[in-house]
Structures are given as C-alpha cells and as structure tokens.
Amino acid sequence: MGQTTKLRGKKLTLGFKSQTSVPAPKVSAPPVSNVAEPVAKNVNRESVSDSAADHDRKPAKKTFRDYRTMRGDLKDRILTNMVNALALDETGQLPVFFRQDRIMPAKIGLFHDLIQRFPNFNDRKALKAALVPFFRDLAYIRSIIEEEQRFDLDLNPVEGELGEITQSHKEDARKELDFKLKNIKKRMQKKNSAVPD
Hints:
Radius of gyration: 28 Å
CATH class of the domain at 72-191: Mainly Alpha
Largest sheet: 2 strands, antiparallel
Order of helices and strands: EEHHHHHHH
Helix content: 40-55%
C-alpha cells in the first residue's frame, strides 16, 4: 500500500510499493562520557606555548574564488556542445584553451583556427552556438580586462595584431562587465523582494 504523509494540512499519498525490504543501517554513536572535561577560566593566551595555542585553535583559512574560472555546470555544457559540433568522441580531444580551468583571452580569429584544426566538424552554426556562452561569460570578460595578450588554441601567447588587447578592448570589456553585474544585481534584488518573510 501507499505511504501517507501530511504536508501543510494536505494529505499526500505516495503510491508505490516496496519490492524488497532493506534493513536500516546500524549507526553507532560515539561513547558518551559522564565526566566533564575541565575548562580553564581566564587563561592568559600569551602564557601558553605557541604549539599548544596552535593546537587549541587554528585560524580559519579563507578560500577565495578565482573569478576567472567558469562555473562547472556551464563549462561542462559548453564543452559537450563543442564536442558534438566538432564530431569528437570526448572532451579530452578539445584544445587546451577550452579545457583549462583559468580562462584566458582568445586570439582574434580563434574560430577559424578551430575549424582548420577539426576539418570534419558537423555544423558551423552549432559550433558558434556552443562558443557564444564561453565568450560572453564573466570569466572571459574579466580575462580581457586583466591580461595584456591573447592566446591561441595551445595556450601560446600570440604576437602582433591578432594577440594584442588594446585599450578600447579593455574599455568595452569593462562596460560589458558593469552592465552584466548591474543586471545580476537587479535580478537578485527582484528575487529577494519577491520572497515573502
């Protein structure tokens, strides 16, 4: 028979039958001692040796997110779409430029280099559609702002006009970043104001 549960005043019936009964795992709690550990009051921390103080309490390490890395789910989706568009078997066959964690600025004409490297690709539109989210992501925009040079498919720095990031490129990237961050902030405010207390 089904299992019945009350959910905010409404009766909810789950209509499934268990084929086999699985015994619940036995969880053993750690032994409890009735003896309380002595607590020192008004201890002067300076008098305690360094090793004892370090053992008592270590400062929490803050981990900072590298804003030049792409979200994992977005990157996986982009790489999967690229593999499909280029008619490859796996993401390991993609150039290093796309597989690395830290996003770098692409050389001008990278799309054509990609087509030359993989001449048997399926669909030009599908490849462009797969690349658009990569190049519009905040991580890529930040890479344009922070770097002075662009990179090819093998992560080699590119010299000349195709590898130079001009001041106008940086200004355009800053404007785009500001625009995207303002939109994100508006969406978050709208989302937070829509949630009732």
